[in-house]
Amino acid sequence: MYKRLISALVALGLGLSTSTWAADVGFDEYVSGLKVEAREKGISESIINSAFEGIQFIERAVVADKNQPERKLTLDEYLPRAVPAWKIAQANALYRQHQAVLDRVGRHLGVQPRFIVALWGVESNFGRLMGNYNVIEALSTLAYEGRREAFFRNQVMAALEILDAGHITPKKMKGSWAGAMGQPQFMPTSFLSFAVDGNKDGRIDIWETEADVFASAANYLHQSGWDDQYTWGRQVQLPSRIDADLFGVEKSKGRSLAEWQRLGVRRLNGQALPRVDIQAWLIQPDDNKGRAYLVYNNYQTLLKWNRSHYFALAVSHLADQIR
Predict the structure, then answer these.
(1) What distances in angstroms separate CA 238 from CA 59, 60, 247, 250, 270, one per listed residue?
(2) Out of 48-62, 100-114, 165-179, 290-304, which region has the weakest mean confidence (pLDDT)?
(3) Which residues contact 267 (CB under 8 A, 6 or more apart)?
(4) Structural contact between residues 130 and 174, judged by C-beta atoms closer than 8 angstroms
(5) Using an 8 Å Cβ cutoff, are 58 and 133 in contact?
(6) Cα–Cα distance, 136 to 30 (Å, whole number)
(7) So what's the pLDDT on residue 73?
(8) Rounded to whole angstroms, how far apart are CA atoms 227 and 115?
(9) CA R_g for the chain
(10) What is the pLDDT of residues 239-284, one digit of tens each?
(11) pLDDT of residue 58
(12) Span 137-145, mean pLDDT?
């Protein structure tokens, strides 16, 4: 309603811009509605007041949401940037530094520690790049902007629930322009579903407490179907001709390694595929050119974290370099 009114006033030439109103009356009224919903959900008045105090419409968050990069790098271009030598060295050093905690978490939740470290590195450069946006402010902005209102409004309510539980204060709840929070870059709903108190201090702190970061990342994978008896997959060599319909991660396209062997798929060095009874899917993210992979169920689990093949392959390749 408010956005239609703003547009009508702009159309009448009253010297108002949509962004001016969005940052003023329209946004303020929208936030008032968020507060009403929060009260109905049982969020305490003190948290509502502190969380929304002084928040403003963040135009740069909307610009970032609308202008995500369109040019797609090939995997040959992307992977060296996402997994450079310095990041591999840091991943190995940090694994050794935190090995006792990582091994304990890995045993308890059934996730190889190298994948926990790899996710940590790809998501936030080991906690160095978490974003500096006020999460409530960013999420409220994107909900008000309207293209994905239901999604972001739900995230606002989840963030308020986290605050109400005392895990973090509003001023310390920082994240990306899209509201992804902390070192594992969890959206608020993912925090509520998967975040874990790794050091047993009664709070879940994915911003500053590595034990909580590791346990939360591992629990996400564990709850999403991870199996630590297997790895993620492997790069493969394709036959000169192969049916395009075989590619994809849909359940119906999974085949045994023996079947892929019969279809002419080989290890990257040309040798036969392993004789292991496991389902695998054939992917080639750059379509009919570039790298091809056979991926296992653990890779499918990484796609539940982030639906991007480039993300999942960056995590997988970094994990392979951690010893």
Answers:
(1) 47, 44, 11, 19, 9
(2) 48-62
(3) 234, 236, 237, 273
(4) yes
(5) yes
(6) 13
(7) 84
(8) 12
(9) 23
(10) 999 999 999 999 999 999 999 999 999 999 999 999 999 999 999 9
(11) 84
(12) 93
Give 155-181 as a DSSP string.
Answer: HHHHHHHHHHTTSS-GGG-EE-TT--B
Cα 185-188-192 angle, rounded to 5 deg: 110
Q: Read off the pTM.
A: 0.88
pLDDT over 50 at 103, yes or no? yes
Please return the burial class of 24, using the count of CB atoms within 10 Å of its CB with bins 0-12, 13-18 and 19+.
Answer: middle
What's the whole-number average pLDDT of the chain? 90
| Count of CA atoms in the C-beta half-sphere (13 A) of 299 | 30
Span between the terminal Cα atoms of the chain, in Å: 57
pLDDT of amino acid 170: 95
Return the SS3 of 281. strand
Instruction: Categorise residue 26: left if φ over 0, alpha if ψ from -120 to 50, beta otherwise.
Output: alpha
Quote the CA–CA distance of 280 and 106 in Å, as a whole number.
Answer: 24
- pLDDT tops 80 at residue 63: no
- CA 320, CA 323: separation in Å to the nearest integer? 8
Reported in sequence order, the residue ranges of 111-258 that DSSP labels E, i.e. its strands, are 133-134, 174-175, 233-237, 255-256
The tokens describing 186, both together, are 């969890």
Q: For residue 9, is pLDDT > 50? A: no
Smallest Cα–Cα separation from 214: which of 101, 85, 72, 58?
Answer: 101
Residue 204 near residue 172, CB atoms below 8 Å: no
Q: Are 121 and 210 in contact (CB under 8 A)?
A: no
Mean pLDDT, residues 306-315 taken together: 96
Tokens for 323, please give them.
């010893």
Sign for the pseudo-dihedral over CA of 219, 224, 230, 232: negative
